[in-house]
Amino acid sequence: MSEGDLPYPNPKPVCIDAVPPDKSIIKKGSNFEKDHELTIKKQPLLMNLISPKIHAYLDYSIAAILIGIPWIFGFTMNGPEMWIPVIIGLITLTYSIFTRFKEEHFGIIPLRVHVISDVILGAFLASSPWIAGFTKTSAIPHLVMGVLICAIAVLTDVPQKSDEEKGKKLE
């Protein structure tokens, strides 16, 4: 099919905020190129419903629930169904203490790394009954808590770094 055979006219290319072809008319030192660059903002896949502050409170609550799950549900003591949530609760508590949830907060772990760790631990907790072989006795609490941890991580608003902050080191 040639260009003349199209049922509609051939559209002309459109330039948005394009630099004029003759750059000699732009004054040296002007901010023309900076002011007229085209920026595309990436939209998150899901709405960021949970603030970092709320995420911190939820982390401490979930860690306490995970540590208490074996006694709440009466799991077999010294079995994997007991130790997996206790260990994940202690890990969650530890890296939550050291997470930088906001800029002025003491922390050595960036929130982005924390959220990724939440997804990994949540997925492991949710799949642990099948990995460790205790699906018939106590799979539901592990599955529910693992999915909850993953959901909280995915719905947390992780601030994007600006170009200026990307190059800075912690002082």
Description:
The structure is a single chain. The chain is mostly helical and 171 residues long. The protein has a domain at 52-154. The protein contains 6 helices and 2 strands; from the N terminus they run αααββααα. A two-stranded parallel ribbon has the order 1-2. The longest helix is centred in the middle third of the chain and has 22 residues, at 52-73. It starts with 31 loop residues before the first helix and ends with a helix. The model has no long low-confidence stretch (mean pLDDT 77).
The neighbouring-strand order within the major sheet is 1-2
Q: Could you give a short account of the major beta sheet? A: 2 strands, parallel
> How many helices does DSSP assign?
6
The arrangement of helices and strands along the chain is: HHHEEHHH
Which class of secondary structure composition applies to the elements? Answer: mainly alpha
Percent range for helical residues? 40-55%
Determine the mean pLDDT.
77
- The percentage of residues in β strands lies in under 5%
How widely separated are the two ends?
63 Å
Shape: globular
Radius of gyration: 26 Å
Poorly predicted regions: none
Number of strands: 2
